[in-house]
Amino acid sequence: MELIQGCTDKSELKSVKEFIRLNFPDIIYPDERISEKAIRLLEHYALSDGFRTVDALIAASAISHKASLATANFKHFKNIAGLHVIRFEP
Length: 90
What we know:
The protein is mainly alpha-helical. The protein has helices at 2-5, 10-23, 32-49, 53-64, 74-77; strands spanning 68-71, 84-87. The protein has a single domain (2-87), classed as 5'-nuclease (Rossmann fold, 3-Layer(aba) Sandwich). The chain is built from 5 helices and 2 strands, in the order H-H-H-H-E-H-E. The protein has a two-stranded parallel sheet with strand order 1-2. Helix 5 (74-77) links the parallel strand 1 and strand 2. Helix 3 (32-49) crosses helix 4. The two termini are 14 Å apart.
Protein backbone atom coordinates (compact mmCIF):
# COMPACT_ATOMS: atom_id res chain seq x y z
CA MET A 1 0.00 0.00 0.00
CA GLU A 2 2.73 2.42 0.95
CA LEU A 3 4.59 1.95 -2.31
CA ILE A 4 1.52 2.22 -4.51
CA GLN A 5 0.31 5.35 -2.69
CA GLY A 6 3.55 7.13 -3.54
CA CYS A 7 3.25 6.64 -7.31
CA THR A 8 2.79 9.77 -9.36
CA ASP A 9 1.96 8.21 -12.73
CA LYS A 10 1.15 4.92 -14.49
CA SER A 11 4.79 4.27 -15.32
CA GLU A 12 5.80 4.44 -11.65
CA LEU A 13 2.83 2.26 -10.71
CA LYS A 14 3.94 -0.36 -13.23
CA SER A 15 7.51 -0.28 -11.84
CA VAL A 16 6.28 -0.56 -8.26
CA LYS A 17 3.97 -3.47 -9.04
CA GLU A 18 6.85 -5.30 -10.73
CA PHE A 19 9.11 -4.57 -7.74
CA ILE A 20 6.45 -5.96 -5.38
CA ARG A 21 5.92 -9.05 -7.52
CA LEU A 22 9.65 -9.82 -7.60
CA ASN A 23 10.46 -9.04 -3.96
CA PHE A 24 7.36 -9.52 -1.80
CA PRO A 25 5.52 -12.76 -2.59
CA ASP A 26 3.20 -12.73 0.43
CA ILE A 27 0.40 -10.33 1.32
CA ILE A 28 -0.01 -9.67 5.04
CA TYR A 29 -3.51 -8.81 6.22
CA PRO A 30 -3.98 -6.95 9.51
CA ASP A 31 -5.30 -9.10 12.35
CA GLU A 32 -5.89 -8.40 16.03
CA ARG A 33 -2.21 -8.74 16.95
CA ILE A 34 -1.14 -6.34 14.20
CA SER A 35 -3.89 -3.88 15.14
CA GLU A 36 -2.78 -3.84 18.79
CA LYS A 37 0.84 -3.29 17.74
CA ALA A 38 -0.27 -0.48 15.39
CA ILE A 39 -2.05 1.29 18.26
CA ARG A 40 1.11 1.11 20.41
CA LEU A 41 3.17 2.49 17.52
CA LEU A 42 0.73 5.37 17.02
CA GLU A 43 0.87 6.22 20.71
CA HIS A 44 4.65 6.35 20.56
CA TYR A 45 5.37 7.89 17.14
CA ALA A 46 2.34 9.91 15.96
CA LEU A 47 3.32 13.20 17.59
CA SER A 48 7.07 12.99 17.11
CA ASP A 49 7.29 11.56 13.58
CA GLY A 50 4.03 12.48 11.83
CA PHE A 51 3.01 8.83 11.95
CA ARG A 52 -0.52 8.05 10.68
CA THR A 53 -2.86 5.07 10.99
CA VAL A 54 -1.94 3.41 7.70
CA ASP A 55 1.76 3.91 8.49
CA ALA A 56 1.20 2.19 11.83
CA LEU A 57 -0.61 -0.76 10.26
CA ILE A 58 2.13 -1.20 7.69
CA ALA A 59 4.93 -0.99 10.27
CA ALA A 60 3.11 -3.30 12.70
CA SER A 61 2.58 -5.84 9.92
CA ALA A 62 6.26 -5.81 9.01
CA ILE A 63 7.40 -6.07 12.63
CA SER A 64 4.93 -8.83 13.47
CA HIS A 65 6.08 -10.93 10.52
CA LYS A 66 9.79 -10.05 10.85
CA ALA A 67 9.67 -8.59 7.34
CA SER A 68 11.51 -5.64 5.84
CA LEU A 69 9.56 -2.53 4.90
CA ALA A 70 10.33 -0.87 1.57
CA THR A 71 9.11 2.73 1.51
CA ALA A 72 9.72 6.00 -0.25
CA ASN A 73 8.48 7.70 2.93
CA PHE A 74 11.58 6.84 4.94
CA LYS A 75 11.19 9.67 7.47
CA HIS A 76 7.98 8.25 8.97
CA PHE A 77 9.54 4.84 9.64
CA LYS A 78 13.25 5.47 10.32
CA ASN A 79 12.94 5.73 14.12
CA ILE A 80 10.80 2.67 14.78
CA ALA A 81 12.59 0.13 16.93
CA GLY A 82 12.55 -3.39 15.57
CA LEU A 83 11.65 -2.34 12.01
CA HIS A 84 14.03 -2.97 9.12
CA VAL A 85 13.40 -0.21 6.57
CA ILE A 86 14.55 -0.27 2.95
CA ARG A 87 14.59 3.13 1.28
CA PHE A 88 12.66 2.84 -1.99
CA GLU A 89 12.93 5.40 -4.77
CA PRO A 90 10.48 4.87 -7.64
